[in-house]
Amino acid sequence: MSENVTEVIAGGAVLAAAVGFLLFAAQGTGLAASRGTYDLTASFQSAEGITVGTDVRLAGVKVGTISRLELNPQTFYADATLTLQDKVMLPDDSAALVSSEGLLGGNYIELRPGGSTENLPAGAEIEDTQGSVSLIGLLMKFVGQSAEDAIGE
């Protein structure tokens, strides 16, 4: 009988751990409902490297995530919904940029606050945006410029 009790306890512990991991994963991907947050929108010409669940950072500190990302068929821009913590109030002239953590790091949304005294209300749009920069495009531009310099000499 004690073998069955031990097996039930071990099974319950495994089940509780699995539920904990599922809840953690749902929260990380934005599937779980969050309290103390509000949404802002932003449109990017290129959203390469960002997805739902990507970090939104202010001064290097995570203050939110991307909760929705879709193509706008009228403008052909990527419309992103940023879910931010309530305690983070951005001026209405703030900017949102797709930034990289480094050469091999992932991308994230960087918020740069403006100097306005008015804050963006929930549901507002961040007008000043900059999409991701293609590393391959930059390298091709550099190589092309180097080749032109070599030919000119």
Automatic annotation (TrEMBL):
Source domain of life is: Bacteria
A single Gene Ontology MF term assigned here is: phospholipid binding
Task: Give the Mce/MlaD domain ranges.
Answer: 37-114
One Pfam family in the UniProt entry = MlaD
Q: Which InterPro entries does this entry report, sorted A to Z?
A: ABC_MlaD (IPR030970), Mce/MlaD (IPR003399), MlaD_Phospholipid_Transporter (IPR052336)
Any idea what this protein is called? Answer: Outer membrane lipid asymmetry maintenance protein MlaD
